[in-house]
Design a protein that fits this description.
This protein has helices spanning 31-40, 48-62, 93-107, 122-129, 153-161, 167-174, 203-209, 212-216, 242-260, 269-283, 292-296, 300-314, 322-342, 350-362, 369-375, 382-393, and strands at residues 68-71, 74-77, 82-85, 115-117, 145-150, 180-181, 189-190, 194-201, 224-227, 266-267, 319-320, 367-368, 398-404, 410-416. The protein is α/β, with parallel strands linked by helices. The longest helix is centred in the C-terminal third of the chain and has 21 residues, at 322-342.
Length: 419
């Protein structure tokens, strides 16, 4: 039986499941960004993790070139490039970014001109932020900030394959905030850059478009992969109320204005110890592993430093503390989990993926049968629900247990098995 755009076949003879969708660690919802995402969550079906990284990208664009981290001899701007992976329709990728955009524009409406859509070529990107040729040049700008939304990221991947297309080379320089230039008849040049890109793509299209040489070339591993799903069913979502939006916008504006005044962001002593003794080796694991996902994790270490610093400056601090670093590491782990999930080529059952993600995220309390049914809008027949639970439980990765309810009536619940 086919459940979505990707077919599923019962090739699971050994009861082993493919990699599960990643589960979100709540510590990622830190500081003002987390507060805004949680405040908006009841009003949208968008996945909170998708709203968070979209908002993070927007803010990283708006605060500009001042805040940065120095890693060795390399200066890293605090820009974040999320690539949202979600199934067509059910992923709610667009809802996630639109929710973040609404919050951003409520905070800083004057930067609306920096938000554009479509990434056609390297030349087109540079044209947006190119240097003025002279004082009489009506084009060009001294403001190198730009946030690009590419809702059809698969088309960018297709264009990047074409001989002579400059988008890959320009993206690789742009992620580092470097000068951008192409040698064509117009000799376009931007003496510096502060470009943020948000991409949307389905897992299936990404796998179809991706060639191993492209990943190794480093174009797409500049992006932070983030898997998203519809978080809840809201037949008539009302969106954020105007008075609430105004309050949230004011809080975000204050944080952005403070953050933009900072320069280099370091680690405090406790954070430095955590980085040296644990996180550096853990997040650098891709260097010692093989597999397609490892290419997507090559930027895990700098991304962790960038994201932690972003949390810090939005709290008006120029030193990353342990909580910032743990939140950033949790988000990077989620991105690594996304890469493993997305780049696995096993044919999948989307309902199994949805149930596993929910069970992985709910903890020891587990889910009751009614709660499992609610994940699917209570639209599954008893037989289909029984088969779904049996398929997941048969792997040994999950277990069922008896729980006494408030009235003493025992019921069966389901959770991840202890390792």
């Amino acid at each position: 039986m086919t459940h979505s755009g990707e077919s599923y076949e019962e090739t699971n003879k050994t009861n082993e499941l493919p990699p599960a969708p990643p589960a979100v660690d709540p510590t990622v919802f830190r500081g003002v960004l987390g507060e805004l995402v949680m405040a908006a969550d009841p009003t949208t079906e968008a996945d909170p993790i998708g709203v968070l990284v979209s908002l993070m990208a927007n803010v990283s664009a708006v605060i500009g070139t001042g805040p940065h981290v120095q890693i060795g001899n390399t200066r890293h701007p605090l820009i974040v490039w999320p690539l949202l992976f979600g199934r067509t329709g059910a992923g709610r990728k667009g809802d996630a970014t639109e929710t973040a955009d609404r919050l951003t524009w409520a905070a800083v409406p004057e930067v609306g001109h920096l938000f554009v859509s479509g990434l056609s070529s390297g030349e087109g990107l540079i044209e947006r932020i190119r240097d003025p040729r002279d004082e009489n040049d009506p084009g060009g700008t001294e403001d190198k900030r730009l946030r690009i939304l590419e809702a059809e990221f698969g088309s960018v991947m297709a264009r990047a394959k074409r001989e002579g297309n400059t988008v890959g080379a320009v993206l690789r320089e742009g992620w580092s905030g470097k000068a951008l230039a192409v040698m064509n008849r117009l000799a376009l040049r931007a003496s510096s850059s502060h470009v943020v890109i948000i991409g949307h793509v389905t897992p299936r299209e990404f796998r179809l478009r991706l060639a191993q040489t492209e990943m190794a070339g480093g174009t797409f591993n500049r992006f932070l992969p983030v898997y998203v799903e519809r978080s809840k069913r809201l037949p008539l979502p009302e969106g954020i109320a105007p008075e609430v939006l105004s309050e949230l916008g004011a809080r975000l504006r204050e944080a952005v204005e403070r953050a933009a005044r900072h320069g280099e962001v370091g680690l405090d002593e406790e954070a430095r110890r955590l980085w040296n003794e644990e996180l550096y080796d853990e997040l650098g694991c891709a260097d010692d592993e093989e597999g397609a996902w490892t290419e997507f994790a090559r930027r895990a270490l700098p991304y962790c430093r960038r994201i932690a610093a972003l949390y810090a400056v939005l709290d008006d601090r120029d030193q990353v503390d342990v909580k910032d670093l743990k939140a950033a590491a949790a988000l990077v782990r989620y991105s690594i989990g996304t890469a493993k999930f997305v780049l696995d080529r096993t044919l999948r059952n989307p309902r199994v993926d949805t149930l596993r993600r929910a069970l992985d995220g709910v903890g020891e309390a587990g889910l009751g049968r009614g709660e499992v049914s609610a994940l699917f809008g209570r639209n599954l027949t008893k037989q289909v629900l029984d088969e779904l639970l049996h398929e997941v439980m048969a792997t040994g990765e999950y277990t069922e247990f008896r729980h006494s309810g408030e009235r003493g009536r025992p019921s069966m619940r389901y959770r991840r098995a202890e390792s």
